[in-house]
Amino acid sequence: MSETDVFQQHISRQYDHELLDVRGRIMTLGGLVEAQVESAVAALSSGDVELARKVIEDDYKVNSLEVAIDEECTQILALRQPTARDLRLIVGIIKAIADLERIGDEAKRIAYQAIDLAGHFPKRNQLSELERLAESVRAMLRKALDAFARMDVDASIQVVKDDRQIDRQYEGIMRQQITYMMEDARSIPTSLDIMWSARSLERIGDRSCNLCEYVIYYTTGKNIRHVSIEQIAQELQES
Amino acid sequence: MSETDVFQQHISRQYDHELLDVRGRIMTLGGLVEAQVESAVAALSSGDVELARKVIEDDYKVNSLEVAIDEECTQILALRQPTARDLRLIVGIIKAIADLERIGDEAKRIAYQAIDLAGHFPKRNQLSELERLAESVRAMLRKALDAFARMDVDASIQVVKDDRQIDRQYEGIMRQQITYMMEDARSIPTSLDIMWSARSLERIGDRSCNLCEYVIYYTTGKNIRHVSIEQIAQELQES
């Protein structure tokens, strides 16, 4: 092996190591964001104001990790000048961390609603639908992170399909709360808190879908945003 | 001038041309998005269901232009392998077009609210605050696009400061509509439409701020997200 080859291999190994490192850090960010969503929803269910405050305080951890990974990616682009799949991976990561950071923002919004809601003492059964939606959304986020970690196209398509179920659950909560509000004006503040929280959860579902779209983009080179999932599945099957 | 120099200059000119082209296209996208917001708000004010439907239909134009610019940026990264400021510009553009596309989504959401609202016949004075918020947000988006076109840091800082005014207007509308809902249950559907529209407008304000943050990142190399605007202004003055 010539000296140049050895050097080339060394560079390449270091580069592989950098790519692995950045993929590891995005999983750390994903885990952190998932924990924030879990705590925010727990605070909402239990009326635990202290826990809600902790979610709001801890949002800076999500933000700093996102900025750090973003800088790392820009460094890799500048120094390694990746092409093809490696380039798509880095561009995909830059976009994915922006979505994760905004899932963190939605968790913070849910935490604010939890603090507000704790002052209104909602009836238990008013929260049960919201808790079911929260459970579906958390499962979806977890699957999206798994699919991203393994760059698994099939799992990604499944997550995008699951989003329709989330949308139906969300619409159900909205209709239900409007009925409660019309029946009893005293329930308006509680219903609004529940509606805003449901909206945040629905957005977390949307952003989990985005993660899966980057997986499909990375693996197939196809930008599937704004294309129906059936069309994607069909095309992938044919190719 | 040696042959290599001439060639180098040629490459460089073509590259400059590509950068100019991509900056031009982002302005086209910005103009399109601005027009969508304008039409959505006009549909809301006038109860023009046809106009609202046109906004919803035209959203695909925003989406396709965003995908095209995104691909153009990835091509430039792969072929030109830019570094330093050029790299920050391309990464900034990739992020900015994602924000513009989502401003387009918010315009579409406002258009859906406009169709719903047209069925409830709101009292004129119920819309006046919302129209004022819409005017502020549209002005802010326009300033943000101008600042982005000229990569103007001072103008960008001003836009980020203006966002506080938008937040205050938004909070005022929310409080006002809750009062209306509590006073008269019949106003609940109208008030909810107004609240959702106000929320979309407030989000458009947030995304306009994002554009300005990319300008500051491009020009100074500083990632100012999650940092107070006073701190930024201070640091830039000192440097």
TrEMBL record, chains A, B:
Keyword vocabulary terms for this entry: Cytoplasm, Phosphate transport, Transport
Compartment(s) of residence: Cytoplasm
Top-rank lineage group of the source organism: Bacteria
A GO CC term assigned to this protein in UniProt: cytoplasm
GO term, biological process aspect, one: negative regulation of phosphate metabolic process
Domain PhoU: residue ranges: 27-112, 130-215
Family of this protein: Belongs to the PhoU family.
Function: Plays a role in the regulation of phosphate uptake.
Matches recorded under NCBIfam families: phoU_full (TIGR02135)
Quaternary data: Homodimer.
Protein name: Phosphate-specific transport system accessory protein PhoU
Species this chain originates from: Candidatus Methylospira mobilis
Phylogenetic placement of the source organism: Bacteria, Pseudomonadati, Pseudomonadota, Gammaproteobacteria, Methylococcales
